[in-house]
Amino acid sequence: MRFVLNDGFLYKKIRRIRHSVDKILRNSYGELIKERDSFDDSGRQMPEISKKELADIITANFKRTQESLRVLEEYSKILFPKTSVDFKKQRYAAYDAEKSVYLKYRKFLLQTECKRADSSDLTKKSLR
Predict the structure, then answer these.
(1) How many CB atoms lie within 10 A of CB 97?
(2) What range(s) does the ThiD2 domain occupy (predicted)?
(3) pTM
(4) Which of 11, 26, 56, 97 could form a disulfide with 1 if both were Cys (CB 3.0 to 4.6 A apart)?
(5) What contacts 54, CB < 8 A, 6 or more positions away?
(6) What's the domain count of the chain?
(7) Within a domain: residue 48?
């Protein structure tokens, strides 16, 4: 939001979510880090899917954030029950932020994709 779209309002909205999650996790951070096993993490060997369009990157990041908040919400019900409501609140804030970005920038994102497709077609034609 900040670098490509230069939208201070939406950037601050997203930053508030990030800071809220940090605040929720801060008290349990040491305990969570102790349990992390990044060396044997099954996701470590998974191939990354390359994103070609800005809209794909934005969508993937919102979905990743929402899924992560949902997982934190569910696990916190067992491990840190008082925080599950806070994670749920941030998850819904992420849904709202995604909708705001989509509604405000869908034309821009579609134009970006179309311009790229047009230039790709021109490149292909010139190579023939």
Answers:
(1) 19
(2) 1-99
(3) 0.74
(4) 11
(5) 4, 109, 112, 113
(6) 1
(7) no
